[in-house]
Design goal:
about 350 residues; alpha/beta; Quinone Oxidoreductase, Chain A, domain 1; Rossmann fold; eight-stranded mixed beta sheet; six-stranded parallel beta sheet; 9 helices; about 25% strand; binds NADP nicotinamide-adenine-dinucleotide phosphate
């Protein structure tokens, strides 16, 4: 008689290999420190899912993790696998997981994962930090839009509470978070002014729906902003800190709101009672993934991806990050998937 399946063991597909390829560092360092490793496939705890990844996002904060500038609490356990988001199929799940089944198309966001990041063929995450991939996104787009999509949407909806007809500045509109924030703001029928530098970035931000695009570094920037918002801006999502941002914040009306995700340096200066300035972190939860799924459909979200690299060339992606001026997001293609 076959043995009854244990109620505590993880559900997994039979063909799971014992090891996987991952881009990881054995010491914190420059992009070259990121090399291909053969590592054990992590095992899901009761509330976790194991994802067979098709794609992973590459973010500016990954470079800080690789270089050792941002460390999760406690001693680093090498090799460290960077990567905070990605998309693929559920390959196994812990016995407490009810939200997903093996084979589901999922994307996930987890920061400081002790079992390893998303630059790998497999990642284990809490099932609470994953969502079903919206129908309109493929796995490459979804993998590149989990951290940035949640962060952009929560900035616009939860922190700024943007309303139809309000005027919002997205400072850093050409970047990974900004390109998505522009679209989430337009879906609310807000008036959107975005900053971008260079013809390509300007064209992309305009095509994504911004009513006006301004080069924040230009001497005419504040004048152009006043022309667009003569009564002052209602809200600002700041995705980079600089003196140019501070000058633009002078154009916010009294009682206006400014939001920025932690990591923006230098952080926007407080302005007393005149403005409400709020820092926040993108949050992954079942509710926020539902929120994102709805916003993706409402906005017909497009996920601009600047360049795609195979896992073995993750170091090149990090060199590109160091150069800056990336329009949209960089991504790793880990295996073919729909
Ligand atoms: N706490 C969280 O949960 C969380 C989550 C996601 C992101 N973040 C943070 O959010 C920030 C944005 O992330 P991201 O992925 O969108 O970054 P990104 O892709 O590098 O985009 C940055 C944007 O800011 C612009 N920019 C940079 N320096 C500028 C300057 N001095 N003047 C004018 N524009 C400038 C860039 O345009 P140019 O190309 O013209 O320079 C680009 O449009 C980062 O600081 C990141 O760490 C935090």
């Amino acid at each position: 008689m076959p043995k009854a399946k244990s109620k505590t063991s993880a559900t997994r597909v039979p063909e799971l290999p014992p090891t996987m390829k991952a881009a990881a560092v054995d010491r914190f360092g420059p992009p070259e420190a990121l090399t291909l490793h053969e590592l054990p496939v992590p095992q899901p705890d009761p509330g976790e899912i194991l994802i067979a990844l098709s794609a992973a996002g590459v973010g500016v904060w990954d470079a800080d993790i690789r270089a050792g500038l941002w460390k999760p609490p406690g001693r680093a356990r090498f090799p460290v696998i960077p990567g905070t988001d990605g998309a693929g199929f559920v390959a196994a799940k812990g016995p407490r997981v009810r939200r997903f089944n093996v084979g589901d198309r999922v994307y996930a966001y987890e920061f400081g994962n002790r079992k390893g990041g998303f630059y790998a063929e497999y990642v284990c995450v809490s099932a609470e930090h994953a969502g079903t991939v919206p129908k309109s996104l493929d796995l490459l787009q979804a993998g590149a839009a989990a951290t940035t999509g949640l962060t952009a949407l929560q900035g616009i909806d939860n922190v700024l509470r943007l309303k139809a007809g309000e005027t919002v500045l997205i400072f850093g509109a050409s970047g990974a978070v900004g390109t998505l924030a522009v679209q989430f703001a337009k879906r609310l029928r807000a008036r959107v002014v975005g900053t971008a530098s260079g013809r390509k970035a300007t064209t992309v931000v305009r095509e994504l729906g911004a009513d006006v695009v301004i080069d924040a570094r230009s001497t005419r920037a504040t004048e152009q902003l006043s022309d667009f918002a003569p009564d002052g801006l209602d809200a600002v999502l700041a995705l980079a800190g600089s003196e140019a941002l501070e000058r633009m914040l002078d154009n916010v009306r009294t009682g206006g709101r400014v939001a920025y995700p932690n990591g923006v340096e230098p952080a926007p200066r407080a302005r007393g009672h005149k403005l409400r300035v709020s820092a926040y972190d993108g949050v992954a939860s079942p509710r926020e993934f539902d929120h994102l799924e709805q916003a993706v459909e409402e906005s017909g979200l497009r996920v601009p991806i600047a360049s795609v690299y195979p896992l073995a060339r993750a170091a090149e992606a990090h060199k590109k990050l160091d150069q800056g001026h990336i329009v949209g997001r960089l991504a790793l293609r880990i295996r073919r998937g729909d």
